[in-house]
Design brief:
The chain has 153 residues and is of the alpha+beta class. Helix content is 58%, strand content 14%. The protein folds into 2 domains: 74 residues, no CATH class; 53 residues, no CATH class.
Length: 153
Amino acid sequence: MRCDLCYQSEPSTYVELHHNVGMIILRRVYTTEGELCRSCLDRSFWHHTLRNLTLGWWGTISFIMTWYYLLSNVVTYVQARSELRKARPRREAPREAVSGAEARRILEPFEHNVRMRLRDGETPEAIAQDLARFHGVELGAAQQFVDEQRQAA
């Protein structure tokens, strides 16, 4: 499955985490819900827990709801971590890196992205390494593609 926050193809599980912001008379509730991977689950859990602990207490109803959300989030977190522990990451079969015209065809949709990254001051080597790693093309073909985009810009 794919994580709804980082879009990585990691094992994920559905969670709903909440935090309460008390404003003496009013209160607001914030929620994160969706399929989350382990790292996004950890980050979201601590995000909501810290806000509950610092901003949740200000008001009578908020005081009660903060306790409820803290307990609910801990139970959800423990259950989700248990599910993720059982899940195994998918392992793709290693594939051979592509070169030549096929590599060019794979990389063409990313011309604009490469030009933007070059304008932002990223090194051509770093861009080429990312392209090679994420799109399964040979590093030399990726470097040639980045050089072409640098000359065209």
